[in-house]
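Reviewer 2 asked us to include a model.

Predict the structure of this chain.
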Amino acid sequence: MNIIETKIKGLLILEPKVFGDDRGWFMESFNQQSFENALRERNLDVPQFVQDNHSYSQKGVLRGLHYQLNPHAQGKLVRVVQGRAWDVAVDIRKDSETFGQWVGVELSGENHKQFWIPAGFAHGFVALEDNTQFLYKTTNYYSKACERSIVWNDKDIAIEWPVDASVELKLTDKDHFAPSLNQAKNNNDIF
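Predicted model (C-alpha coordinates):
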Protein backbone atom coordinates (compact mmCIF):
# COMPACT_ATOMS: atom_id res chain seq x y z
CA MET A 1 0.00 0.00 0.00
CA ASN A 2 1.28 3.45 -0.92
CA ILE A 3 0.61 6.20 1.65
CA ILE A 4 0.41 9.83 0.51
CA GLU A 5 0.70 12.48 3.20
CA THR A 6 -1.33 15.63 2.57
CA LYS A 7 -0.69 19.25 3.52
CA ILE A 8 -2.64 18.67 6.77
CA LYS A 9 -1.07 16.32 9.31
CA GLY A 10 -3.21 13.26 9.88
CA LEU A 11 -5.08 13.31 6.57
CA LEU A 12 -3.74 10.45 4.44
CA ILE A 13 -4.48 9.13 0.98
CA LEU A 14 -4.05 5.37 0.71
CA GLU A 15 -3.38 3.62 -2.57
CA PRO A 16 -3.77 -0.15 -2.28
CA LYS A 17 -1.80 -2.44 -4.56
CA VAL A 18 -4.03 -3.69 -7.36
CA PHE A 19 -3.11 -6.93 -9.15
CA GLY A 20 -4.72 -7.23 -12.56
CA ASP A 21 -4.66 -9.45 -15.59
CA ASP A 22 -6.98 -10.33 -18.49
CA ARG A 23 -9.49 -11.83 -16.02
CA GLY A 24 -9.90 -8.63 -13.95
CA TRP A 25 -8.18 -7.44 -10.79
CA PHE A 26 -7.70 -8.15 -7.08
CA MET A 27 -6.79 -5.85 -4.21
CA GLU A 28 -6.66 -5.98 -0.46
CA SER A 29 -9.10 -3.18 0.36
CA PHE A 30 -8.28 -3.10 4.07
CA ASN A 31 -5.62 -4.65 6.27
CA GLN A 32 -5.72 -3.61 9.94
CA GLN A 33 -2.04 -4.37 10.52
CA SER A 34 -0.85 -2.37 7.48
CA PHE A 35 -3.14 0.52 8.38
CA GLU A 36 -1.93 0.58 11.99
CA ASN A 37 1.72 0.44 10.89
CA ALA A 38 1.20 3.37 8.50
CA LEU A 39 -0.33 5.46 11.29
CA ARG A 40 2.28 4.51 13.89
CA GLU A 41 5.12 5.37 11.48
CA ARG A 42 3.66 8.89 11.35
CA ASN A 43 3.02 9.14 15.12
CA LEU A 44 -0.75 9.20 14.55
CA ASP A 45 -3.42 7.66 16.76
CA VAL A 46 -4.58 4.19 15.74
CA PRO A 47 -8.38 3.88 15.67
CA GLN A 48 -10.71 0.95 16.03
CA PHE A 49 -13.43 0.76 13.40
CA VAL A 50 -16.93 -0.03 14.67
CA GLN A 51 -19.30 0.66 11.77
CA ASP A 52 -19.38 0.50 7.97
CA ASN A 53 -21.67 2.77 5.92
CA HIS A 54 -22.55 2.67 2.23
CA SER A 55 -24.14 5.50 0.23
CA TYR A 56 -25.41 5.68 -3.34
CA SER A 57 -25.58 9.01 -5.16
CA GLN A 58 -26.41 10.41 -8.57
CA LYS A 59 -24.22 13.00 -10.31
CA GLY A 60 -24.39 16.34 -8.52
CA VAL A 61 -25.41 15.00 -5.11
CA LEU A 62 -23.39 16.86 -2.50
CA ARG A 63 -23.23 15.46 1.02
CA GLY A 64 -21.58 17.48 3.75
CA LEU A 65 -19.76 18.97 5.40
CA HIS A 66 -20.60 16.56 8.24
CA TYR A 67 -19.01 15.65 11.57
CA GLN A 68 -19.92 14.43 15.03
CA LEU A 69 -18.86 16.00 18.31
CA ASN A 70 -17.49 14.13 21.31
CA PRO A 71 -18.24 11.70 22.82
CA HIS A 72 -19.25 10.31 19.40
CA ALA A 73 -16.60 11.96 17.20
CA GLN A 74 -15.82 9.81 14.18
CA GLY A 75 -12.74 9.11 12.15
CA LYS A 76 -13.57 7.84 8.65
CA LEU A 77 -11.73 5.71 6.13
CA VAL A 78 -13.59 6.34 2.87
CA ARG A 79 -13.50 5.02 -0.68
CA VAL A 80 -15.62 4.86 -3.82
CA VAL A 81 -16.31 1.42 -5.27
CA GLN A 82 -18.34 2.59 -8.27
CA GLY A 83 -18.42 5.95 -10.02
CA ARG A 84 -16.41 9.03 -9.02
CA ALA A 85 -16.54 11.56 -6.19
CA TRP A 86 -14.60 14.62 -5.08
CA ASP A 87 -14.00 14.02 -1.39
CA VAL A 88 -13.08 16.80 1.04
CA ALA A 89 -11.93 17.06 4.66
CA VAL A 90 -11.82 20.39 6.55
CA ASP A 91 -9.78 20.87 9.72
CA ILE A 92 -12.21 22.08 12.42
CA ARG A 93 -9.85 21.73 15.40
CA LYS A 94 -9.88 25.30 16.72
CA ASP A 95 -6.34 25.03 18.19
CA SER A 96 -4.84 23.52 15.04
CA GLU A 97 -2.28 25.37 12.90
CA THR A 98 -4.33 24.31 9.86
CA PHE A 99 -7.77 25.28 11.25
CA GLY A 100 -10.18 25.99 8.39
CA GLN A 101 -7.93 24.47 5.72
CA TRP A 102 -9.13 21.65 3.48
CA VAL A 103 -7.80 18.77 1.42
CA GLY A 104 -9.66 17.26 -1.52
CA VAL A 105 -9.05 14.09 -3.49
CA GLU A 106 -10.86 12.34 -6.30
CA LEU A 107 -11.95 8.86 -5.29
CA SER A 108 -13.23 6.44 -7.89
CA GLY A 109 -13.96 2.83 -8.59
CA GLU A 110 -11.06 2.94 -11.04
CA ASN A 111 -8.32 4.61 -8.99
CA HIS A 112 -9.11 2.61 -5.79
CA LYS A 113 -7.79 5.44 -3.59
CA GLN A 114 -8.92 5.73 0.02
CA PHE A 115 -8.91 8.78 2.28
CA TRP A 116 -8.24 8.60 6.02
CA ILE A 117 -10.01 11.42 7.88
CA PRO A 118 -9.48 11.38 11.65
CA ALA A 119 -11.90 12.88 14.17
CA GLY A 120 -11.66 16.67 14.25
CA PHE A 121 -12.44 17.14 10.57
CA ALA A 122 -15.66 17.93 8.72
CA HIS A 123 -16.21 15.67 5.72
CA GLY A 124 -18.15 15.98 2.50
CA PHE A 125 -18.22 14.88 -1.11
CA VAL A 126 -19.89 15.55 -4.42
CA ALA A 127 -20.72 12.71 -6.82
CA LEU A 128 -19.11 13.36 -10.21
CA GLU A 129 -20.96 10.53 -11.96
CA ASP A 130 -24.32 8.84 -11.71
CA ASN A 131 -24.44 5.66 -9.66
CA THR A 132 -21.57 6.61 -7.35
CA GLN A 133 -21.23 4.22 -4.41
CA PHE A 134 -19.28 5.45 -1.41
CA LEU A 135 -18.08 3.28 1.52
CA TYR A 136 -17.14 4.59 4.96
CA LYS A 137 -15.46 2.76 7.83
CA THR A 138 -16.10 4.77 11.01
CA THR A 139 -14.44 4.78 14.41
CA ASN A 140 -17.61 5.57 16.35
CA TYR A 141 -21.32 4.92 16.06
CA TYR A 142 -23.71 7.45 14.59
CA SER A 143 -25.31 9.76 17.15
CA LYS A 144 -27.98 12.21 16.05
CA ALA A 145 -27.40 14.29 19.22
CA CYS A 146 -23.73 14.80 18.29
CA GLU A 147 -24.25 15.30 14.54
CA ARG A 148 -23.24 18.69 13.11
CA SER A 149 -22.71 20.30 9.70
CA ILE A 150 -20.87 23.22 8.16
CA VAL A 151 -22.17 24.78 4.97
CA TRP A 152 -20.50 23.30 1.90
CA ASN A 153 -19.78 26.65 0.22
CA ASP A 154 -18.40 28.57 3.22
CA LYS A 155 -16.49 31.49 1.69
CA ASP A 156 -13.84 31.43 4.44
CA ILE A 157 -13.01 27.79 3.70
CA ALA A 158 -13.27 28.29 -0.10
CA ILE A 159 -13.40 24.65 -1.19
CA GLU A 160 -12.81 24.28 -4.92
CA TRP A 161 -15.62 21.88 -5.83
CA PRO A 162 -14.90 20.55 -9.35
CA VAL A 163 -18.38 21.06 -10.78
CA ASP A 164 -19.36 23.52 -13.47
CA ALA A 165 -22.54 25.54 -13.81
CA SER A 166 -24.14 22.84 -15.98
CA VAL A 167 -24.27 20.46 -13.00
CA GLU A 168 -27.26 20.99 -10.75
CA LEU A 169 -26.16 20.32 -7.20
CA LYS A 170 -28.56 18.31 -5.07
CA LEU A 171 -28.38 18.97 -1.31
CA THR A 172 -30.58 18.33 1.68
CA ASP A 173 -31.98 21.37 3.50
CA LYS A 174 -29.73 20.43 6.43
CA ASP A 175 -26.64 20.78 4.22
CA HIS A 176 -27.87 23.82 2.27
CA PHE A 177 -28.67 25.83 5.41
CA ALA A 178 -25.83 24.61 7.65
CA PRO A 179 -23.90 27.23 9.64
CA SER A 180 -20.53 28.61 8.55
CA LEU A 181 -17.34 27.46 10.23
CA ASN A 182 -17.15 30.75 12.15
CA GLN A 183 -20.75 30.36 13.36
CA ALA A 184 -20.00 26.80 14.49
CA LYS A 185 -16.86 28.00 16.26
CA ASN A 186 -18.76 30.83 18.00
CA ASN A 187 -21.40 28.30 19.13
CA ASN A 188 -18.69 25.96 20.50
CA ASP A 189 -19.81 23.34 17.99
CA ILE A 190 -16.34 22.27 16.82
CA PHE A 191 -13.34 20.53 18.32
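DSSP finds three helices and 13 strands in the chain. The longest helix spans residues 32-41. We have added this to the supplementary material.
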